[in-house]
């Protein structure tokens, strides 16, 4: 199985970055919209930890 990232921001990475491959696509099972990578730090601060309502 291959893990494929999309839209990431890579800074000072010494790891191997493969640019072409095939991978599992979750769109075939459910719909979703990716958040822009630049928004992730704020989303984590906002939505991680205890929440007053789960939204479920």
TrEMBL record:
InterPro entries named among the record's database cross-references: Pectin_lyas_fold
Region of interest called Disordered, as start-end residue ranges on this chain: 1-21
UniProt-recorded name of the protein: Uncharacterized protein
